[in-house]
Amino acid sequence: MQRFLACGFLLLSIFCFTVCHRKQQKGTDFIRIDGRGSGRVFQGIGGVSAGASSRLLIDYPEPYRSQILDYLFKPNYGASLQHLKVEIGSDVNSTDGSEPSHMRNPEDQNYKRGYEWWLMEQARKRNPNIILDCLAWGAPAWIGHGHFFSQDMANYEVRFIQGGQKAHHLDIQYAGVWNEKKPEFSYVNLLKMDFQSAGLSTKLVCCDLYPAEDQWQMIGAMKNDATLRDSIDIVSVHYPRVKGKMTAPEAAKRIGKPLWSSEDGPWRGDWKGAEELAKIYNRNYIDGRLTATEIWSPVTSYYDILPVPGSGLMYANTPWSGHYEVQPAIWATAQTTQFAQPGWRYIDSACGYLKGKGSFVTLRSPGSGDYSVILETVDATQPQSLTFQVTGGLSEGIVHVWETSSTKMFEHVTDIAPQNGSFRMTLDPDAIYSLTTTTGQGKGDARPPRARLFPFPYSENFERTEEGQAPRYFSDQDGAFEVWHCTGRSGRCLFQVIDKMPIPWSGTPDPYTLLGDVNWTDYEVSADVLMEEPGRADILGRIDSADNFKDAKALWPSAYILSVAQNGQWQLLNAKYKAPTATLASGSASFPLNTWHHLALSFKGSEITASMDGKTVAHVSDSTHAHGMAGIGSGWNRTEFDNFQVRPERP
User: Fold this and answer.
1) 467 is catalytic
2) Catalytic residue among 87, 99, 157, 263
3) 3-class SS at 360?
4) Neighbouring-strand partners of residue 459
5) pLDDT (tens digit, 9 = 90+) per residue, 169-189?
6) Do 339 and 128 form a contact (C-beta atoms < 8 A)?
């Protein structure tokens, strides 16, 4: 009888487990957390600082700059990002601007340019365990005589990683190939071989493709090429969910390599963005077995008139005021990053979908019995009760519950004491929960000052900027604008230093840099200008859009431009996206090379006045652009600027 009962109990247990497991696959209200269950290793949640998305952050004054960095990177404070991926700059537009190159010719190596080195240092200062990686969006013109996939480019990437080690003591653990460009797999093999030849332990990530680009094409290639299979350490794609459906094929899950979403996100940080992030973080693993997700962008530190405004987890693009916004997306991210660390392991049998809509993933610590369950009920319409059963050597201690919703931002809402390893909990709809046996989580409490408008009037003589660096608030949209000692006058000037168009990622305008307030209406923008070589110099005003995604072929933003060539031929232009650039006026004047001149554009209502060296050369009426920011630019030629001013329009 005893033997019969034992056998019956065993059969009943098997039946219950089968039913429960089946319920979890289809949607469940019972979650069995078995510490003996298998799953892939979690490799972290991170941010992608690229496309000049972090440009304005370095211009923030203290203590606000450090507060922003804490919310992004400090463990158990805010988003607690576990990865930081940066762009390998190339002086070419890569979304919201251009990032500086470390090698503008084969002999040049400068590891002080730009802000990505600084950002990686600041991230690692806060989190010594943060995982660093890098990826190129473009390349300087000298690379491969204009061909990206070349030995030159492999050297370029190797030098970037070595420069991080030598100049900044940064170990960049992962590196990609070319952002969202169809790869040449022979180059992938070459790049990995060069990493090894240089003694780098950097792992190769491939291939960072967008859904429209046959993003999983490397899987078939790896099956047929053993060398390629060995070269690729991480299989990566961008935005692997299309209309909510996972794109990862079964063949990718079986390839034997970690799978990453190496760029992802809803491109917004409000509550709607937080909801989407919660789904992305969970469902990337549930549906695709992706073990790392990197979000573009960690912080919106670029002007709103640029492409994809507001993409960041945080919002910080007014450094003159010190103001920033800790958006709900920070806390949606914290619901994962503060409860599981890279190296933890998923328990596949405790990952899935909820009966009343929503998803959950469970991860366990490799060094203890601790575990965490991250749940989201974004699509649920009513509360739902869940039963949890903990077994397999996991902790049966107190379960701490944290919640983020539209009314609760990362709050420790309750503690639960399991009974015989079991406990119940009711989840509200449209919320994110973390259930954990760990402690130490925290919520930062730094507060920003009020937002203030961009200072007006504004002037910049570039004397306060360190040589080789960009001046405060200027946002380069192509080329590179850096401060150096002036030609033919004392002091420092702003130079546009790139004289050949780099290998682009996408649409690339001619070099220009901008700043200011898009709501400026009547004003005068002016600067002293010197051209070192044939080309042109531009003054830009009423820039009402600099979103080059709207027109990849446009040379200028949507604005008025006074453009002067080295032979003195000038034009007053009306540039508008997806429309021919109109010439409002034109003429000629004396404008020799290596000589300083003064250019100005002024606006009063629909009246536009252009002047050169104090003399009016055009006065026209046009109402296309009623307001906008200001800037300066050039062709692909070395040009100097000094005494930049934006002031009220003169009567």
Assistant:
1) no
2) 263
3) strand
4) 645
5) 999 999 999 999 999 999 999
6) no
